[in-house]
Amino acid sequence: MTKATLSTSDAVAETLARYAERGVFQSFSRQSAARGKTAFQIVWHRGRAFELVFDNKRGTLRLTELLPQVSAPMHKDLKAFIEARQSDDLPEHRRIDRARVEVRSSHRAGSVSLSMTAISGDCQYAVTKLVHLVNEIYLIFLAEGEHFDYLVETFDLDPDRM
């Protein structure tokens, strides 16, 4: 691994650590680094443990199994929600800049994974926007939208305590 590789991974780790220090994550740890990829374990929404893998060569952050048990129509809605987060209609500070990152969701065996690639090489921007996007998925797309029942049933929540 080169010095540049280490410094980019370290910058991603530092950005994630700042979110943990602010209480956005319940816990955060750097797991391993191999073949240009670094894995992070994050306990976040609903106390779920997420694995985030940073591919240093591609500048891609991949959050596997962001949402379990997702139907094809719900994934279609999620893709539209993500697309809307990139709209010029949103204020610049809330928008995901398509010129700086590429966002992709994948739906495999019922689970949705999310990836964000830093086109411009600004991985800290990609980390920040990925964290914001996941928060918006849980707090807006699921909690305020037509997928509230999914949120309650999938994560065994009491709707009166939300």
Average pLDDT figure: 91
Residue share in β-strands: 25-35%
**Tally of extended strands?**
6
Compute the number of helices.
4
Radius of gyration: 16 Å
Shape: globular
Strands in their spatial order, largest beta sheet: 1-2-3-4-6-5
Low-confidence spans: pLDDT under 50, at least 5 residues? 1-5
List the helices and strands and how they pair.
Layout: H1 3-21, E1 27-34, E2 37-43, E3 49-55, E4 60-67, H2 72-84, E5 101-108, E6 111-118, H3 123-142, H4 148-154
Antiparallel strand pairs: 1-2, 2-3, 3-4, 4-6, 5-6
Helix pairs in contact: 1-3
Short description:
By secondary structure, the chain is an alpha+beta fold.
Q: Could you walk me through the main structural features you see in this protein, from its secondary elements to its overall organization?
A:
36% of the residues lie in helices and 28% in strands. It has helices spanning 3-21, 72-84, 123-142, 148-154, and strands at residues 27-34, 37-43, 49-55, 60-67, 101-108, 111-118. The chain has a six-stranded antiparallel sheet with strand order 1-2-3-4-6-5. Strand 5 and strand 6 (111-118) form a beta hairpin. The model is unreliable at 1-5 (pLDDT under 50).
